[in-house]
Amino acid sequence: MSDLSRFPITARWPAENPGVIQLYSFPTPNGVKVSIALEELGLAYEPHLVTLSDTDVKSPAFLSLNPNNKIPAIIDPDGPEGPLGLFESGAILLYLAEKTGKLAGRNAAEKAVVTQWLMFQMGGLGPMLGQLGFFVKFAGAAIEDPRPRDRYVSEARRLLAVLEGALEGRDWIAGEYSIADIAIAPWLRALDFYGARELVGWADHPNLVAYLDRFLARPAVQKGLNIPARPA
Fold first, then answer.
1. In terms of Cα–Cα distance, which of 85, 17, 25 is closest to 45?
2. 3-state DSSP call for residue 227?
3. How does DSSP classify residue 225?
4. Coiled-coil intervals in this record (predicted)?
5. Which value, to the nearest 10 degrees, does the dihedral of the CA atoms of residues 150, 153, 159, 164 take?
6. Which phi and psi (to 5°) does residue 4 adopt?
7. Chain segment 162-215, per-residue pLDDT in tens
8. Is the separation of the CB atoms in 10 and 35 below 8 Å?
9. Which domain holds residue 195?
10. Does 210 lie in the same domain as 132?
11. Predicted local distance difference test score (pLDDT) of residue 2
12. How far apart are the first and last CA of the chain?
């Protein structure tokens, strides 16, 4: 049996099965990337619900694994040189793809393209849509000055246009289904949650509409979107 005692987070969120990957997450766009990937890859894992409250993500236990106090994070008891803790959703996706040899391209050229689109999501799409959500649905919506919201609406439209063009004539962003799609699609789905679809002209992007529908129809996606389960 694997010994995860050197990870303080396991005292707060104990592992029932320390021999499988431990997932510490919440079902946000970034959080579900990892649960979906784990489901798609068929890896055994144990999910732990870490809420977005300071009592969880800023607790000493969680900070011991991710000093950046953001979900998701994992511990892989079967790491390359023993148990391995990782944070940052993109880094975790790359690690899991490399571990299994799946969903990241079959050769160096394909892997480079998958990584390109993964970085597009990590550096652009996710941060910009997250800020859009802040100014449309959350506290930023109360700001009277329209310029902050307009900035992110404009940037969201630009990024959606990039994806719309890239998906012309293909089902998945890098050719075959990959971790890049697992990173991108949950953020597109979030536009509905933010109530921002009309603002960004979602209906004017037929390739993206069909792309998200394809993604959401996958059984592993349907399962992963609800892991860890929110409290009743």
1. 17
2. coil
3. T
4. none
5. -130
6. -105, 15
7. 999 999 999 999 999 999 999 999 999 999 999 999 999 999 999 999 999 999
8. no
9. 108-218
10. yes
11. 83
12. 32
Question: pTM of the predicted model, to two decimals?
Answer: 0.97
CA angle in degrees (0–180, nearest 5) for 187-203-185:
20
Query: Which spans in 52-107 are helix H?
Result: 54-57, 60-63, 89-100
Query: pLDDT digit string (tens) for 5-45?
Result: 999 999 999 999 999 999 999 999 999 999 999 999 999 99
Structure tokens at 201: 């002209």
Neighbours of 172 (CB within 10 A): 18
DSSP-assigned letter for residue 203:
G
Domain harbouring 134, CATH code? 1.20.1050.10
Distance of CA 76 to the CA centre of its chain: 18
Q: Are residues 119 and 35 in the same domain?
A: no
What digits encode the pLDDT tens for the residues 132-145? 999 999 999 999 99
Q: How many CA atoms lie within 13 A of 72 on its CB side?
A: 32
Strand 21-25 to 73-76 pairing: antiparallel
Please list, residue by residue across 48-78, b when 16 or more beta carbons sit within 10 angstroms of its beta carbon and e when fewer do.
bbbeeeeebbebebbebbbeeebbbbbbbbe
Q: Which of 52, 81, 102 represents a domain boundary (last residue)? A: 102
What whole-number distance in Å separates Cα of residue 69 and Cα of residue 46?
Answer: 20
Q: Domain count of the chain?
A: 2
Q: How far apart are CA 180 and CA 34, in angstroms?
A: 12
Strands (E), the chain: 21-25, 45-49, 73-76, 84-87
| Confidence class for position 54, pLDDT limits 50, 70, 90 | very high
